[in-house]
# Entry
Amino acid sequence: MRRWVVAWSVVVALAAAAAGAAPPPLTVFAASDLALAFREIVPKFETAGARVTLVLGSTGNLAKQIEHGAPADVFFAADQRFVDELVAKGALIAESRALYAQGRLVLATAPGAGAKLTALSQLREPRIRRVAIANPVHAPYGKAAAEALRAAGVWNAVAPKLVYGENIRQALQFVESGAAEAGLVALSIAGVAGLESVPIDPALHAPLNQAVAVVRRSARPELGLAFIQFVNGPEGRPIMKRYGFALPGEF
# Structure
C-alpha cells in the first residue's frame, strides 16, 4: 500500500476545490458488525469536508452487489476471503487491500430467557426454543457460528432451533426482541440494553479476519484509501478497539 499513501484531509480539500462545491459522498459498503463503530468513525472523518454514505449488509450479499456493478467506492468485509475473491476478479484494487480488524463471536441471552447462558452446551436446554445466527451462506459470522456449534458437538441438537438473520444485525435483533432466546452474534454490536453475553472460544471457528479494499470503478479511489487509512489510523483504531475488535498487529 505504500504507493497509495495519501493525506485524507488534502484529498477532500482538493476534490472540493476542483469541483467548486462539496464533492459527492463516498459510498462505503460495510459488513453489519461495523454498524456501531462506524457510527462514531464516519462523523469524525467527515469533519474534513468529506461526506460518507454508509451501506451496511451481509458481506456475501455486498460482495455480489459490487461484482455486479453496484456504485460502491470502498468495501469493508467481515471475511478477507470475499475481498481476495473480488481482487482476483479485478473488481477491487489489489494495492489498496488491507486488514483492518479481527472479529469476535459471543453467545448472547435474550432478556426474559432466564439465567444467562455461559456455554454452547446450554443451547440444548428446553427453555431455549430458538437460537439466532446470521445466514452462514453469505454472512461470515453465521459461518463462524455454525463452525462453533459443530466443534462444540451441539450442532445436531441445536440445528432444529436455528433462525437465520439476513445479516448479523438482524440475528441480534431476533435476540434483543425475544424472538430467539439466544444467539451467536458479533461482540462489536452485542452491547445493547438488556442483553448479556459471553465470548465464544475463537478456537472453535476459523478466524474472522476482516479486510477492506477500494472498488476499481470508484471515481475517487484516493479518497476511498484515505478512509481506509483513517479507520486504521490513530483516530479509528481506539474506536474499533472499544467495540471489541482485535486490530492489525494483534492477530
Q: What stands out?
A: Residues 8-19 form the longest helix (12 residues). The CA atoms of residues 131 and 159 lie 9 Å apart. The first strand starts at residue 26 and ends at 31. Strands lie at 26-31, 52-57, 74-76, 98-103, 105-109, 131-134, 162-165, 182-186, 196-199, 208-214.
